[in-house]
Amino acid sequence: MTDGNRFYADTCDHCLRPARPGSGIATGGLLTAAYRCCGTTWTCTWRIVPGRILPPQPRLNAA
User: Fold this and answer.
1) What is the pTM of this model?
2) Average pLDDT of span 45-49
3) How many CA atoms lie within 13 A of 61 on its CB side?
């Protein structure tokens, strides 16, 4: 079976294009991913799928 969403992409509500997460936090089998597109930001929580590409963790100490 081929995974049609290899990057935990979500759809932008404004332009209806897929947006890949810029960062994410994986814990307890779940991923909370952060997205940015068309000047808006949002998060989405996913169940982790083995083999799917996880986004990088956020840089929490960045200025």
Assistant:
1) 0.87
2) 97
3) 0
